[in-house]
Specification:
The structure holds two protein chains of two kinds. Chain A is mainly beta. Chain A has one domain: EutN/Ccml (OB fold (Dihydrolipoamide Acetyltransferase, E2P)). Helix content of chain A is 5%, strand content 42%. A five-stranded mixed barrel of chain A has the order 1-2-3-5-4. In chain A, strand 2 and strand 3 form a beta hairpin. The two termini of chain A are 25 Å apart. Chain B has a single domain, classed as EutN/Ccml (OB fold (Dihydrolipoamide Acetyltransferase, E2P), Beta Barrel), CATH 2.40.50.220. Chain B starts with a strand and ends in an 8-residue tail after the last strand. Chain B is mainly β. The chains are: A mainly beta, B mainly beta. Chains A and B meet through strand 4, strand 5 and strand 6 of A and strand 1, strand 2 and strand 3 of B.
Chain lengths: 99, 89
């Protein structure tokens, strides 16, 4: 899964009939310090996320593994809303680890 | 499957019902020499790993198989903790 921030919504009237009722959100990829990256993705919401929230997006065929998106043409789904990240800076900065 | 190192934990109260009870961890992918490869990803923990540990994880829809539920929107799952690695060359 990837970390992202919801930056907007997408409205569309003409779409695949399977997608009627879906809530599409634009999610910008962010790094561990919440700094925005270049990439954005359009994801179907499964948890009730809103603009401005930090979310986790599952991509690929796994995105079809919810009751709503099952067998539908969806490849990205928001599956959690982040409360807090607990990052060990020391571990992050290590370039290599001793195996 | 890929090798990785756990660099942190995510707290999320609101998440998809099927994954309630599973911890989500930040995983930095590494190669067999222990060097960082690419960007960190988020993976569901099915083995009880902790920060700093070397693990291996599965990606894509196979990541749902180790979970107790039939369907869950999960594209990466930690499936084992590495004790040691033996490289011949």
């Amino acid at each position: 899964m990837i970390l992202g921030k919801v930056i907007g919504t997408v409205w569309s009237t003409r779409k695949d009939e399977n997608l009627v009722g879906a809530k599409f959100l634009i999610v910008r990829h962010i790094d561990l310090e919440y700094k925005p990256k270049e990439a954005t993705v359009i994801a179907v919401d499964s948890v009730g996320a809103g603009v401005g929230e930090i979310v986790i997006v599952a991509q690929g065929s796994s995105a079809r593994q919810t009751t709503f998106t099952k067998n539908k043409p969806v490849d990205a789904v928001i599956m959690a809303i982040v409360d807090k990240l607990d990052i060990s800076i020391k571990e992050k900065q290590k370039e290599t680890v001793v195996l | 499957m890929q090798l990785g190192k756990i660099i942190g934990t995510i707290w999320a109260t609101r998440k998809y019902e099927a994954v309630t009870g599973y911890k989500m961890q930040f995983v930095q992918p590494i190669n067999s020499e222990g060097k960082n490869i690419g960007e960190p990803i988020i993976a569901l923990d099915t083995v009880g790993a902790g920060t700093g540990e070397i693990i291996y994880y599965v990606t894509a829809s196979e990541a749902v198989i180790p979970l107790d539920v039939d369907m869950a929107p999960v594209d990466a799952s930690i499936v084992g903790i590495v004790d040691s690695i033996n490289l011949e060359s």
